[in-house]
Amino acid sequence: MNPLLDQFLTEGRDVLQSIGERLLQLEDSPNDAALMDELFRLVHTLKGNSGLFDLPEMTRVLHAAEDLMDAARDGRVPFDRALADRLLEAMDFVATLIDEIAEAPDDTPPSTARHAGDAVRLGEALRSLLQDDSPPLDADGTQEIPQDAPPALYRTDAGPDLSALPEQTRQDLRQRLDAGESLCWLGYEPEEECFFKGEDPFHQMLQLGAPLWHRLEAREDWPALAELDAYRCVLRFEAIVSASPERLAEHFRYVPDQVDILPLSALMQTDTPQASATAIGPEAAWSFDRVLAAQREILALSDTPPWLDGRLRAVAASLSAAFISVDRAIEVETLEPALASALAARSPAPLLAWLDARQPPTEIGEAADIDAGAPTDSSGAKAPEAEAVRFGRRAEDHLTNPRTLKVDQAKIDRLMNLIGEMVVAKNALPYLAGRAEDVFGVRELAREIKTQYAVINRIAEEMQDAIMQVRMMPVSFVFQRFPRLVRDIAHKLGKEVRLVMEGESTEADKNIIEALADPLVHIVRNSLDHGLEMPEERRAAGKPSEGRLNISARQESDRVLIEIADDGRGIDPNRIRRKAYERGLIDETALERLSDQEAINLVFAAGFSTAEQVTDLSGRGVGMDVVRNAIARVNGAIDLRSQLGQGTSLRLSLPLSMAVTNVMIIESAKQRFGVPMDSVAETVRVARHDIRTIKHRRTTVLRGRLVPLLSLNELLALNAEQIPNDDDEFAVLVVRVDQEYLGIIVDDCRETIDIILKPLAGFLGGLNGYAGSALLGDGSVLLVFNPRELL
Amino acid sequence: MALEFKKTTVIASDLLGVEDAEILLEWLIKHPRGRINLSACTHLHAANLQVLMAAKPKVSAWPRDGVLADWLRAALTP
């Protein structure tokens, strides 16, 4: 299901719950203005949200509820029990719709059009309260005479005048009805202001295809041309079309209060010669159809239970009662033989045939709505709809089990911390196994401990995975505010910018996503302010005047990469050098020595800003260093690349989750170190004679690729040679840095373990080259490299 | 332009939008005996329909589209 709709459903239920609570509280203290405001706000919110989706029925009811609440809030309508009842009923209706949508299997919300009639009725019921109680105040002229909610499926006040039909059409219609076609009479009176709402009633009618009969007239006499208001709609369309009432209701679902739809079967039946003369109301006809549909459904059941006889008799009784109720008792005479043959054959077929002969199957309503199992008695046949349908969902009704849980984040955090500790604690088991073997000399026990460890390890990993899934959030959480931000800033600066976003659905841990929000906004502002040029400048440089800002997110193994790239002027390394020198960030020798890339990286230095003047956008000196620190705090890395005149690209690499890090333990100069697994490409053994020295740099060929080699002891300035194994082979850790591969010679590679990485703090915090430290199962401290910074 | 005005006839082509109703009405007021040619018209907005129903100009050619022509005939011929 699409996430927006999902969220709406979840929130919708919450809001409905709150509305229910407020309503009940208000009944106790009807004069509580704050409570009233709160209630209005809730209804208003829900209405607004429902407008995002194609749910006109829900919006209609909520709109009426909102109007009523507004009136109640202003004191125009007293808040009383009747009002609360109506509102509760409306909310029950909304809840029904929400449940229905939630149960839909596919992505798109199902059409709720068949509730259109209910929606109209509820809306009118709500509005009638509004009018009943405040007739004099309603001066602005929404002035329909308050009427009790008519118990109709559709509006029925304007009945069809079939006498206008030419005899030939009448014949044709009758034939079609007999052939089982579903025909409807349709009356459509568009409201006067409909043109201003962008509606075209004529188009709407034409969409229905060729009608069997149609009539178009004005609701009032045409004035003189000079006085004609072409934009006040006074048309009235009538047509007889070959379509089911449901389809028509769906077609006109946005204007259900302006159309009348009547299945023609009922209307025509009344003037067919075989039926007695009494015309039945459309409402009764509708009920009659529903009863028949229900019976048909029972007959269509294919099983043959022992109580089949009873069932057949019940159906026959219902049918007979239904036909008698619409004054067609004469037809019931043939029912008895049909029942007899059905009982004899133990099959519902004869009854079904009888029913089909009387009333061809039409798609009337949702037969499932009727309690299909129970035979309907004659009173039920007449009017189950005689009173307004109530969407009662009181306490005794079944509760839909919510599919989502709202949990306080602190609880999740606690769970995550516990799982983290569990992961570390299990690391103690291999040491224990080692001690059992080495110190106490019981190899059996050691083996058993290791087996147990494997089991615990698997469970711990799954737990870790599960808790990570819980905490995952899509980056769109942060990305979604960029379109507006970019638009506003670009507007302010007079620049033309096109924002392209990719990979919004990439997910990462909630903490990571949240930590990302501010730095990203800052980076985007920087790009807009410093990176992209003014349109004239861009045209002069031969670029399209519209600048391009690309924000993309993607997952790469267990990191999330976020790239913000613009095609602006890029960063001039010389300007950076000069500025840095002026601000005393570097000295003269450094000025000469710095490579372009190093110079560009100076923008991350504290207190660095190139902007000549402080704007409200950027240039206050709290700049990229803050960004870098924020990213580093969540174990992320930031990489800035810029090409003068071509643009700048910033790449953030963040861990998917900050909870647990998988590291490989290596040994060098009798010390143990950790290397994050995500930067390790492979570990190989390279024989001494395979190492070539090219220009004082050691290299080797691995899988047809030249890989430079560095010794870890040299990198760490440890005064020791790397130790090869007995075959004179070196252990080489191949790491990947910026898509390039590099071999680090170590003494030995050991196992990989999961640790909780703690960043170095205090005085050690300034040491780059280390990502942090961790506690091992045997209580010792492991230092973990950051290969990117070590080199 | 969906409306083309000749001396005594207005020729409607393609789709008559909601804005065209006002122009059409104005022209019909000025030319009380004006005719309308709808042969190339594929659809007209209901506002235009109202204008035509109120002004009842002579229709020199009906739309080629059968359904549309049917509706218009029913509305415009007494």
| Net shape of chain B | globular
Strands of chain A, total number: 22
Strand numbers in spatial order across the main sheet of chain A: 14-18-19-17-16-15
Quick one: biggest sheet of chain A?
Answer: 6 strands, mixed
Question: How would you describe the overall organization of this protein?
Answer:
The complex is a heterodimer of chains A (791) and B (78). By secondary structure, chain A is of the alpha+beta class. Helices cover 43% and strands 18% of the residues of chain A. Chain A has 6 domains: 3-132, Up-down Bundle (Four Helix Bundle (Hemerythrin (Met), subunit A)), CATH 1.20.120.160; 162-271, Alpha-Beta Plaits (2-Layer Sandwich), CATH 3.30.70; 282-382, no CATH class; 409-473; 475-655, Heat Shock Protein 90; 661-790, CheA-289, Domain 4 (OB fold (Dihydrolipoamide Acetyltransferase, E2P), Beta Barrel). Chain A is elongated, with a radius of gyration of 39 Å. Chain B has 78 residues and is of the alpha/beta class. Chain B is built from 3 helices and 4 strands; from the N terminus they run ββαβαβα. Chain B has helices spanning 20-30, 46-55, 66-76; strands at 3-5, 9-16, 35-44, 58-61. In chain B, strands 1-2-3-4 form a 4-stranded mixed β-sheet, covered by helices on one side. In chain B, helix 1 (20-30) packs parallel to helix 2 (46-55). Chain B is globular.
What distinguishing features does this structure have?
heterodimer, A: 791 residues, alpha+beta, Alpha-Beta Plaits, 6 domains, 6-stranded mixed β-sheet, 5-stranded mixed β-sheet, B: 78 residues, alpha/beta, Transcription Regulator spoIIAA, 3 helices, 4 strands, 32% strand, globular
Concise synopsis of the structure shown:
The complex is a heterodimer of chains A (791) and B (78). Chain A is elongated. Chain A starts with a helix and ends with a helix.
